[in-house]
Amino acid sequence: MCGCEAVRPGGGATPYDEGREALVTGRRALLAGGAGIFFSAAAAGAANAAPESARTARRAYVIVLDGCIPGELDQGLTPHIKALRDGGLRYARASSMPVMETIPNHTMMMSGVRPDRTGVPANQVYDHSLGQVRTLERPADLRADTVIDRMRRQGFRTGTVLSKEYLYGIFGTRAGRRWEPAPIIPVSGHAPDQFTMRAATDMVTDYDPHLMFVNLGDIDRFGHSDFTGTSVQALRRTALADTDRLIGDFVALLKDRGTWRDTMLVVLADHSMDWSRPDRVVSLAGPLEEDPYLRGRVQIADNGGADLLYWTGPSSGREKAIARMRTMAEGVPGVHSVHDRRADWMRLGPEAGELVVFCDAGWRFSDPDPVTSNPIPGNHGHQATRSIPFFLGGGHPAVPRGRVTSAKAQTVDVAPTVAAFFGLSGRPRGGYDGRSRLL
Amino acid sequence: MSTPSDSPVPSGVRRRAVLAGGALGAGALGTSGALAPARSAAAATAATSGRYFRHGVASGDPRPDRVLLWTRVTPTAAALPGSGRGPRVTVRWEVATDRGFTRVVRRGSVATGPGRDHTVKVDVTGLAAERTYWYRFAHGGETSRVGRTRTAPAERSTPSHLRFGVVSCANWQAGYFSAYRGLADRLDLHAVVHLGDYLYEYGPGQYGMGMDDVDVRRHVPAHEMVSLADYRARHGQYKTDPDLQDAHAAHPWIVTWDDHEVTNDQWRGGAENHQPDEGDYRLRRSRAHQAYDEWMPVRLDDTATVGDGDRIYRRLRFGQLAEFSMLDLRTYRDEQVSTPSGDVSDPDRTIAGTDQLRWLKDSLMRSRVQWKVVGNPVMIAPVTFAQVPRDLIAPVNDVTGLLPEDGVPYNTDQWDGYTADRREVFNFIRNHRVEDVVFITGDIHSGWAADLPYDAGTYPLGGTAGVEFVCTSVTSNNLKDILGAPPHTASRAVETAILGANRHIKHLNFDDHGFSVLDLTPRRAQMDWFTIGARDDRDTPITYETSWATFAGTSTVVQAAGPVR
């Protein structure tokens, strides 16, 4: 399991199933956009819009180029994104946060706090209560307050346009308007960027949210399946060019509407991408089974470039087990490093188990089965996928023009940046872990 | 960071005159407790004419709150470098925020004597970050020339740009140090980085200018330096060069050594140019390092104390924009492979040594700064010379070092001779996707700009670990000198062959001498190459040659439109 594909024990309801159920039962209202685009809203909100206490003309659009590598914006494939980047404030030293997966980094973006506070350390975790590995895609999985929630409480209009099923799931009904993604590509569980950006356009036109959170999944999804990833990256490059054109159209829309000078765009990736050959696969399940002390008492949540190891034996044996797991993992070819999930730079909560194991660049995990669990070439989650593009664009005067800075920026900085842009009152209890990247 | 605050110099006014003017101003404003009046402008310009301060002044290793100051005092006529003669004396120093010394912020005194060859090193602390200072020394009623230095930006600051001179390989006997004049004349540098071969060990007639080894100037002492006195005397001689003195006085320097600071092609247990009758090699090296410690504005073992250690690899940080990791690729390396074999890839062989390699990987952590600049004495880019015409192999070898005429078509004195270490560094970069790594390199007497591919065989596919910019030599012979051919004639065949066989190498100039300027901004790193004319012409003109850059996040080089302004 690469970590990008949802895991649902027992074939439980998907987030889309639950979304449809909410519409059928009337808990949410379906609002038709143009050309078959549908949004949903809380039933009361749909019938009677929430009081508008926020009078600002400011608009912030957070656009995630899922899986994009910073250098890919300088290959001539993305002229619109590059122009946006070069015309705004670029953070040349930006990072995804551990584990370098989609769900934890999107939740960090919107909460401004680290996984030991969000409860979302990875895409896949071992759920002790279920006794199974599952995807963190339920609204209740995200324990932290988000900037979406706070803006909505303070009267701002908010919207989510999330192309991936598990993002649609975990952010649930937090936004005032939620896109009901369609069409969905089977297996990848995501909507193509063409439809996602059409939805974003309709949401701006029809609902005009102050904050809109958009995930564009094509660059990531085509990267995952690109068997030429270690060489010419044919699929990937096609996706980059196509997504770039859509971003260009979106910017043109904002300028046509005359709202560009009120706009701040936060454009970033959640992680980057790395490709491996079929023979460069790490599987820890076998070595774990060979250890008589660990056999049958360790669970693995495979997140593509990172394995999370969970001790399921008696708590009295945890420290001994951790030591043995570490020794075992460090000796496996393709393993880069093994980390305590509580380390300062990781800050993962108990949902991450005991140890986080990263693979080398050019490798991937495939657990529990070394052949079938993760056959795809493109992966992330490991340290080689930490570098991301991160820049602020748009026409609002708060956005610096044509600046590049060597200051660090991280996914966890998005929420405080948005909060600063709107001058939101209050902060998360315990404060943000990130910081505003407006200068 | 703002652009350096110095006002522009009117056209035709030499840098050394500006510095001397500062000293002149101090004379009129001397106060009780201050140093004695400075020399006149003319005296300051003729730097070697002073009685006590004949070897100039220097500063180095700038940090946000401190900078190291250096001079050498000659208290008596007999107290010549390497002589071991002369009394212990006290030298006073002061640092001011203005060239007229009306605002002195630090002053003190320090004792020196023959035990350290009458050199003076002062680590001046308590300075403000990212600021230009002026300094001078005094002894016996005489004041040294005035030096200008600059502290580094604060660690958490985000400078908008940094600019450094980059230079290597200055052989006294091969000509005049006009390249240093070029660096001294620039007002826009935050520091000068010297990548090694600051001086050469040879005696007269052994290594000079061109294919006939003509000595434009003769080394002192008149034999290969071996003893401590030899090394001291040679350092003393180099420090009398007016262009070198000007360059030291104009900017703080960040230095490392290559092989010739001890002797040619040195490794941890010996050297090509060390013979059994020259005594114990390690003892010779310790003498060379002692003299280097005494005579160079550098903190060995991170201190200004002379003789407390000889670890030169260290980091110099400039805010969040850049950090220089200066390497020592001689002291810990295994012996070079000189015969065709697979030993260049032996994982048990090292060029950096275990501790330094671990330290280098720490230097490359992506969380440290944006531009990870590695001060790299020998080339790290893989280079095959396989396509070079056979009759040109010998002269290429003369320039590049160990290039066997038969067999291995690469330079085994460079990282190409220690591929396991290179693979470890590159794998670290790849595993952490470290971006914006720039190796700046000397040693090879030629100018290069190259990508650093993870796999040269599949390049440009497969990714790159960073880029490398190689500065040419100040005076040391390059290919045309050895061929005895006019510039850009015979060497063109070699350059074409190398560029054709190494697609990751984008620029190569085997013919010119000069210096480079490295400019860093958050957007890109750019190297400009400047070349000199005839090495035996003290006033030879300096001309701009070319520029190459790497943009943030790309790890590839592209040609730049022109030099930084």
Greatest interface and its residue counts?
A-B, 29 and 29 residues
Poorly predicted tracts of residues of chain A: 46-52
Looking at CATH, which topology of the largest domain in chain A would you report?
A: Alkaline Phosphatase, subunit A
What is the count of structural domains of chain A?
2
Radius of gyration of chain A, taken over Cα atoms and rounded to an integer in Å: 21 Å
Name the average pLDDT of chain A: 92
In terms of structural class, how would the helical and strand content of chain A be classed? Answer: alpha/beta
Write down the overall geometry of chain B.
globular
- Rg of chain B, nearest Å: 22 Å
Question: Largest sheet of chain B at a glance?
Answer: 10 strands, mixed
CATH secondary-structure class of the largest domain in chain A: Alpha Beta
Number of DSSP E strands of chain A: 20
**Percent of residues in β-strands of chain B:** 15-25%
- For the secondary structure, the number of strands of chain B is 24
In helices, the fraction of residues of chain A equals 25-40%
Sheet/helix structural class of chain B: alpha+beta
Helix content of chain B: 10-25%
CATH homologous superfamily classification of the largest domain in chain A: Alkaline Phosphatase, subunit A
Protein described:
The complex is a heterodimer of chains A (439) and B (565). Chain A starts with 14 loop residues before the first helix and ends in a 17-residue tail after the last helix. Chain A has helices at 15-24, 43-47, 79-87, 102-111, 115-118, 147-153, 165-171, 193-206, 218-224, 234-257, 285-290, 318-330, 414-422, and strands spanning 28-32, 38-42, 59-65, 89-95, 124-127, 132-135, 158-162, 177-179, 211-216, 263-268, 274-275, 281-282, 298-302, 306-311, 335-340, 355-359, 364-365, 378-379, 390-393, 403-410. Chain A contains 13 helices and 20 strands. The model of chain A is unreliable at 46-52 (pLDDT under 50). In chain B, the strands form 4 sheets. Chain B has a 10-stranded mixed β-sheet. In chain B, strands 14-15-16-17-19-18-20 form a 7-stranded mixed β-sheet. Chain B has 11 helices and 24 strands. Chain B is of the alpha+beta class. In chain B, 19% of the residues lie in helices and 24% in strands. Chain B is globular and about 65 Å long. Chain B has helices spanning 15-28, 41-45, 178-184, 228-238, 242-250, 281-295, 354-363, 393-400, 419-431, 479-483, 490-501, and strands spanning 57-63, 66-72, 89-96, 104-112, 119-124, 132-139, 142-143, 147-150, 162-167, 191-194, 252-255, 266-267, 270-271, 314-318, 322-326, 371-376, 437-441, 447-453, 464-470, 505-509, 514-520, 524-532, 542-551, 558-559. In chain B, helix 3 (178-184) runs parallel beside helix 5 and helix 4 runs parallel beside helix 6. The A-B interface holds A 70-71, 73-74, 90, 92-93, 95, 230-232, 272, 274, 336, 360-362, 382-387, 389, 404-408 and B 158-159, 319-322, 366-367, 369-371, 427, 430-433, 435-436, 458, 461-462, 521-523, 551-555.
